[in-house]
Design brief:
By secondary structure, the protein is mostly helical. The protein contains 14 helices and 2 strands. Strands 1-2 form a two-stranded antiparallel ribbon.
Length: 329
């Protein structure tokens, strides 16, 4: 059988050079635009996240004051970590911080949820109340803390004036920020009041995602408010609640501003938190905090930072494990 192509078809076929092969596209070349787009994010992550963490981890093994060159600092191995484990003030700071975080979780979040439920119930003027509740959040923590420092002052403070001069419920003015029995609870109360608004907004946003049809069906079945809350509201907002708890827990374990401005970690170390204790060793004069440190000990401060990070990491892992366990029930 003759398989030769017609003359016209032979004329239309392009000539193929035996030495020229089609170019193969490499994976790098084919994904180059994607790599270029993510490069700025990766670079920023490496510069502002990976490098600082690696540097802090490295300096935690050194006897370095932060003034001279880090390359001239002497290597001490795990001496700083041994010192940290045996440091009673560090454990006082851990206890204060954990107690603060627990109070924020068990007092502030339920209160924020109650306020959000009230505002979501169709209350007249809810927009105004929502704005009023959110106002403290947009106010600087330093400004709020300084204002409450004067408010609770035993020398002409408005709160002492109310209790002592007007109501007569106390025999003498109380230094709410200067006595061990009151200082921690006073600062924690201010923090709960200040941060209540942001969690209220989070819960309110979560509540508004719950379909109204579910409530209407439950009402037809004769369900009360508690049955609707337990069977509809709680399961619907559980994923967002887990996020709120995680953010609140991580933020509470890193608390600094309230105690730094209102008490400076005192009296003594009764209101010192983990971040405050770290700041004491990484700044001149302890940053005005409790203690007599005048020359920074950045090596030991870095060790405190590593301990802080490990505690926060462990707390978040435990919280997420509990959330997954509740979802699987």
């Amino acid at each position: 059988m003759d398989t030769a192509l017609p003359t016209s078809a032979q004329q239309t076929l392009p000539a193929v050079s035996p030495s020229r092969r089609p170019r193969r596209t490499t994976p790098l070349r084919s994904h180059l635009p994607a790599y270029l787009m993510v490069a700025p994010t990766v670079i920023l992550f490496l510069v502002f996240m990976v490098f600082p963490i690696a540097f802090v981890l490295y300096t935690s093994f050194l006897d370095w004051n932060g003034i001279g060159s880090v390359f001239d600092a002497s290597f001490t191995g795990v001496d700083n970590y041994t010192r940290l484990v045996q440091d009673p003030t560090w454990w006082t700071a851990v206890r204060n911080t954990v107690l603060y975080a627990v109070i924020k979780l068990v007092a502030e979040l339920p209160l924020a949820l109650v306020v959000a439920l009230t505002l979501n119930s169709g209350l007249r003027g809810s927009t105004l109340f929502r704005t009023i509740g959110f106002l403290p959040v947009i106010t600087s923590i330093a400004v709020v803390s300084l204002a409450f420092t004067f408010f609770f002052s035993p020398l002409g403070g408005a709160f002492n004036d109310l209790l002592f001069n007007r109501l007569g419920v106390i025999d003498e003015p109380i230094a709410f920020l200067g006595e061990r029995d009151y200082a921690f609870w006073t600062v924690t109360g201010v923090a709960v009041w200040h941060d209540l608004g942001i969690n209220m907004v989070f819960f309110l946003a979560a509540l508004q995602t719950v379909p109204r049809d579910l409530y209407d069906a439950a009402m037809v079945d004769g369900a009360g408010w508690w049955e609707k809350f337990r069977s509809i509201t709680v399961p619907a907002i559980r994923p967002i609640t887990a996020v709120i708890v995680t953010l609140s827990l991580a933020g509470s374990l890193k608390v600094f501003d309230y105690f730094a401005v209102m008490t400076g970690g005192g009296p003594g170390f009764s209101t010192t938190t983990m971040v405050l204790y770290m700041f004491r060793y990484t700044s001149f004069g302890g940053g005005g905090l409790s203690g007599a440190a005048t020359i920074p000990e950045v090596g030991y401060g870095s060790t405190i930072a590593i301990g802080l990070g490990l505690i926060i990491f462990a707390a978040v892992l435990i919280q997420q494990a509990i959330s997954r366990w509740q979802e699987g029930r």
